[in-house]
Design brief:
Length: about 180
């Protein structure tokens, strides 16, 4: 279901970026691994938890100046299975809005830091699983990007989300972006 949504939205992001024609605009996708920590003591006392999963996301950004951009995106932050509760799990996703400050190390390599907010959805799945939650929480990220061409970059990123449904989520991703 989530992958179908991404497949439908990806071409729209590219078309809208092209239509705007903004040379300061970029779009990208990322995939990686997430780990969740600090589940509620009631949950941890009842069952073992599969606390890692695959993450993925789409983002769009606009360079305000060369070293500062505003970025927004959707992130699927994984599903965490409750091992002793048949069909029980928690699932997380977010829409992020962050400022991205970057600086070049070489002509092709840059380091960056991001900070902003995540509007999250924390969903309980299955019988006997409770605590759906949604809200806003801070998020920060650190990463590096390598320019493959003048328009394409590949990067790695570590991102932290605090208190999504009471749980802290760490995300380690590989990203590919395209500038217009």
């Amino acid at each position: 279901m989530k992958m179908q949504w991404l497949a439908r939205v990806s071409p729209l992001l590219l078309l809208s970026a092209t239509a705007v024609g903004a040379e300061n605009l970029y779009v990208g996708a990322k995939v990686g691994n997430v780990t969740a920590d600090n589940f509620a003591p009631l949950v941890e006392s009842r069952t073992a938890i599969d606390d890692s999963d695959t993450s993925y996301g789409l983002f769009v950004g606009y360079h305000i100046v060369d070293t500062l951009a505003i970025e927004g995106g959707y992130n699927y932050l994984g599903e965490y299975d409750l091992k002793d509760i048949a069909g029980g799990s928690y699932e997380a996703s977010s829409f992020d809005v962050v400022l991205k400050a970057s600086g070049n190390v070489t002509d092709s390599l840059a380091l960056y830091a991001k900070g902003g907010i995540a509007i999250y959805d924390w969903k309980a799945n299955g019988p006997g699983v409770e605590s759906d939650d949604s809200g806003v929480t801070p998020t920060i990220a650190f990463g590096t990007e390598y320019s493959i061409t003048s328009a394409m970059k590949v990067g790695i990123e570590y991102q932290l989300y605090q208190d999504i449904g009471g749980v802290d989520i760490d995300s380690f991703n590989v990203a590919l972006s395209h500038s217009f």
